[in-house]
Design a protein that fits this description.
The protein is mostly helical. About 70% of the residues lie in helices and about 5% in strands. The chain has 3 domains: about 5-50, no CATH class; about 60-385, Up-down Bundle (Na+/H+ antiporter like fold); about 405-474, NAD(P)-binding Rossmann-like Domain (Rossmann fold, 3-Layer(aba) Sandwich). A 4-stranded parallel beta sheet has the order 3-2-1-4, sandwiched between helices.
């Protein structure tokens, strides 16, 4: 497609998403529904303007990379390792149950076992993007619920990568001589290699690079450096190690998050991630053929039953069985009541190998659209149920209101005046958090035992990181 066509797709996608997102909010619906409808409107199966789906998917991929990179920045590596003790068995159990139930239902409807199992595997994978946005709406993304759910999807992504490697080996006759064990071993080595590379980058290369960029005091260069790291590691992970760009971006975020630049990277360098993430939903909407609702209604109903009922129940019971309280198990289960981007990748490979037919593909796409649209409401209901608040009101956060700490002061800048103010406050026993853009100053304050944050105070996220919600003075 020519350059003008790409810009038309970008402009048209944003414009239609803006209109439908606004209408959805006015109707007190989730904006995700508006973005999906926008994709249907500009897709190839409805009359009028048709955007280029390939271009839309490329732009959407940028949004996915930046969103997952931002999530990785906020994750504590130790917490993620702890969560994986729950996420690994949880992902395996939930995927097995969801796949098995759908395979049995479809077999009773006349499908062969292979097609039923493949479609079941596809719908067992949840979308990390959808999950992150829904969790963020309830301020659960960086709480225990979010850590368990996101860690779970990371495990699912790794399992799906293994399946993508295995399907052509198992079901392509001229490649049948290749050993499944060898393929799995190579996949494991690739993932392990990626982890080693990311650890090395996070320990030496990334801090060294960002430190030198930060000392230039150029906001544009710092933004560019973080974007290069996010997109570069994501693309490298896909091209060299064969994993998803989303997983690569998440790991890149974990690496940067271990450094002293995490707060500024999160608040200063990713302002466009939400806009590009909108195109993710638009690109999914473009896949939907409304005729499938009439052509394969029973298959869609079967898939929706498993996605909305079986998957959440399986996840919830697994989390509960592994020792977590219902207040964690119920929201985590509800977060999985949708079908993700990896489902389409797995479905595409299965379709090309003849493992599912067009009816299966159309059912997968339709179920994805419907489940993503319903997921915010399923999670809302589950969140209220877990806190014992099933009401008609629409609370955004169930946590208690933060109490103001009158002895906490946020000090902006540590120049000549800032040093005097800092000394006077310290003499009075005030708890101080300093925000400054001079990296050497931040390190000196850390050596002095003062809480200091490297970041731009003009970014709201920097103030949030410093504790503006509970600080007594600024």
């Amino acid at each position: 497609m020519d350059e003008i066509g790409v810009l038309v797709t970008l402009a048209g996608g944003f414009a239609v998403a803006l209109v439908f997102g606004y209408l959805a909010l006015r109707l007190k619906l989730s904006p995700i529904i508006g973005y999906l409808l926008a994709g249907i409107v500009i897709g190839p199966f409805t009359p009028g303007f048709v955007a280029d789906r390939t271009s839309a998917e490329h732009f959407a991929e940028i949004g996915v990379i930046l969103l997952l990179f931002g999530i990785g920045l906020r994750f504590n590596l130790r917490e993620l390792v702890a969560v994986w003790r729950l996420a690994i068995p949880g992902a395996l159990i939930q995927s097995t149950i969801s796949t098995g139930v759908l395979a049995v239902i479809l077999h009773l409807m006349g499908w062969n076992w292979v097609s039923g199992i493949i479609l079941g595997m596809a719908i067992s994978v949840a979308s990390t993007v959808v999950m992150a946005l829904v969790l963020a709406e309830w301020h659960d993304l960086h709480a225990k619920i979010g850590h368990v759910a996101i860690g779970w999807t990371v495990v699912e992504d790794i399992l799906t990568v293994a399946m993508l490697l295995l399907l052509p080996i198992i079901f392509t006759p001229d490649r049948a001589e290749q050993s499944v064990g060898v393929v799995l071993g190579l996949a494991g080595l690739k993932v392990a290699g990626l982890l080693v590379v990311v650890v090395l980058l996070g320990k030496w290369v990334i801090p060294w690079t960002l430190e030198r960029i930060a000392k230039t005091r150029s906001r544009e260069l710092f933004t560019l450096a973080v974007l290069v790291l996010a997109i570069g590691v994501a693309v490298g992970a896909a091209k060299v190690f064969g994993v998803s760009m989303a997983l690569g971006a998440f790991l890149a975020g974990l690496a940067v998050g271990r450094s002293e630049f995490a707060a500024r990277a999160a608040n200063d360098a990713l302002p466009m991630r939400d806009a590009f993430a909108v195109l993710f939903f638009v690109s999914i909407g473009m896949l939907f053929d409304p005729r499938s609702l009439v052509q394969v209604p029973m298959v869609i109903a079967a898939v929706m039953f498993v996605v909305i009922i079986v998957k959440p129940l399986a996840a919830m019971l697994t989390v509960r069985a592994l020792g977590q309280p219902l207040s964690t198990a119920i929201p985590v289960g509800a977060a999985f009541s949708q079908v993700g981007e990896f489902s389409f990748i797995l479905g595409t490979v299965a379709l090309s190998l003849g493992l599912i037919n067009d009816d299966g593909w159309n059912a997968l796409v339709a179920a994805s659209i419907l489940s993503i649209g319903l997921n915010p409401y399923v999670y809302r209901w589950a969140r209220r149920l877990s806190s014992g608040k099933i009401t008609k009101t629409l609370p955004i956060v169930s946590s208690q209101r933060a109490e103001i700490n009158p002895n906490h002061c946020i000090l902006i800048g540590y120049g000549p005046v800032g040093k005097i103010v800092h000394r006077l406050l310290k003499e009075r026993g005030v708890e101080i958090t300093v925000i400054d853009l001079n990296l050497d100053t931040i390190r000196a304050l850390h050596d002095m035992g003062t809480n200091a944050l490297y970041g731009d105070v003009l970014r709201q996220g920097t103030l949030d990181e410093a504790g503006i919600a509970t600080a007594g003075s600024l």
